[in-house]
Specification:
Elements: E1 3-5, H1 6-13, H2 17-26, E2 37-39, H3 40-49, E3 82-87, H4 93-102, H5 105-109, E4 119-123, E5 129-133, H6 137-146, E6 154-160, H7 167-179, E7 183-188, H8 197-206, E8 220-222, H9 231-245, E9 256-265, E10 269-278, E11 281-282, E12 286-289, E13 292-300, E14 309-310, E15 315-321, E16 330-334, H10 337-370
Parallel strand pairs: 3-5, 3-6, 6-7, 7-8
Antiparallel strand pairs: 1-2, 4-5, 9-10, 9-16, 10-15, 11-14, 12-13, 12-16, 13-15
Helix pairs in contact: 6-7
The chain binds guanosine-5'-diphosphate (GDP) and magnesium ion.
């Protein structure tokens, strides 16, 4: 039904081939031989020319979309900033993430048992929370962006004080700038005898990073991920920037989020980490991501604690997916299972249709070349 030959369409419409071909040419359709395949858009355009009303497949239009962003966000509550750590290999990203995880007041309470879910939240003594993305490297950042997922609020750029600005440091700066995400510089490994943070600063400034010390906006903190020195200052810098940028989200609307990672787990089936961006995700909710849907059976946080509700800024591992969704997929809530199933079916059909149109173009191209 997605493609039809010229002669079949002529038959359906009830016109002879010769005038039909003339009509097609007048509509700007270049190839009009009887076996040429027309796609559904071309076919319905032609049908309308003959005063026919092509049946528009209205079911295919059913999908889920994010809510419009309110003009005035100031009336909504603050949400935790979402932070990604970037930097050159071996400059200390993993060590820093591990060290930050341990600074959480809550982690201490439950004995610091953490599970890897691709993101974690740090609760500070000041009651403030920071959410860190724990997905490996620059590729994940780009992949998320490519899918249109604007997840990160702040990039922490780790530069080792004994090694200085390196190719992946510059790549990280470019990624952050392209995405319009502000940077906080963390000069790491200052415990080392050959640390030279002055050199790092000068080098960063030469590469367009406007540090506060020269009147710019970019904060710079000296840390040692290994000894824990300066981690409090780094968290403070993040909170300062977050307050300046005033990140807020609606809490009482249907949940919207993004898939951070997914996998199949023994005994649990398809699981995926959802970072809630707006609204509150609740146990029992129906959500859709890409071509998968889920009735939220079990939700747990990065400390392995089960949750009934996840407000904005919370990363949660969700059990109950029909398929494993893809990293970067947008998560949207459906009112019921019927709607979720319809949306997924439509999305699959859309993917199939796009594939058919591509195949059709290839077939037509081959025919053209044969002539
Ligand atoms: P990544 O590739 O950026 O994730 O870097 P890693 O976190 O794996 O760190 C690379 C190496 O640097 C490891 O041997 C770490 O122990 C070491 N390292 C990380 N941070 C520090 C630091 O603050 N001081 C020192 N002396 N070594 C560090
Ligand atoms: Mg690493």
């Amino acid at each position: 039904p997605e493609a039809i030959t010229v002669s079949n369409l002529a038959k359906i419409i009830g016109v002879r081939l010769a005038p039909f071909e003339r009509k097609l040419r007048s509509l700007g359709i270049e190839y009009t031989t009887h076996d040429h395949l027309l796609n559904s858009e071309e076919a319905s355009l032609i049908a309308m020319e003959y005063d026919l009303n092509p049946i528009v497949d209205s079911i295919a239009a059913i999908d889920l979309f994010p809510k419009a962003i309110p003009k005035d966000m100031s009336i909504y509550p603050l949400r935790p900033p979402i932070v990604t750590i970037m930097g050159h290999v071996d400059h200390g990203k993993t060590t820093l993430l591990d060290a930050l995880r341990k600074t959480s007041v809550a982690a201490g309470e439950v004995g610091g048992i953490t599970q890897h879910i691709g993101a974690f939240s740090v609760s500070l003594p000041s009651q403030k929370t920071i959410t860190f993305l724990d997905t490996p490297g620059h590729a994940a950042f780009s992949a998320m962006r490519a899918r249109g997922a604007h997840v990160t609020d702040i990039v922490v750029l780790v530069v080792a004080a004994d090694d200085g600005v390196m190719p992946q440091t510059l790549e990280a700066i470019k990624h952050a700038k392209d995405a319009g995400v502000p940077i906080i510089v963390a000069i790491n490994k200052i415990d080392k005898h050959d640390a030279n943070s002055r050199k790092v600063r000068d080098s960063l400034m030469r590469h367009g990073i406007e540090l506060e010390e020269v009147g710019g906006d970019t904060q710079c903190v000296e840390i040692s991920a290994l000894t824990g020195k300066g981690l409090g200052e780094l968290e403070e810098a993040i909170i300062t920037l977050a307050e300046l940028n005033d990140y807020r989200a609606e809490v009482d609307i249907e949940a919207e989020g993004v898939i951070i990672e997914s996998q199949i787990e023994k005994g649990k089936g398809n699981v995926a980490t959802v970072l809630v961006k707006r609204g509150t995700l609740k146990q029992g909710d129906i959500i859709v991501a890409g071509a998968s849907w889920c009735k939220v059976r079990i939700m747990s946080d990065d400390k392995g604690q089960s949750l009934k509700q996840a407000p904005p800024g919370t990363p949660v591992k969700v059990v109950g997916w029909r398929e494993t969704p893809n990293t970067g997929d947008e998560v949207l809530q459906a009112t019921d299972e019927e709607l979720a199933k319809t949306v997924v079916a439509n999305r699959l059909r859309k993917i199939e249709r796009e594939k058919q149109i591509k195949d059709l173009e290839i077939i037509n191209e081959k025919r053209r070349q044969r002539k």
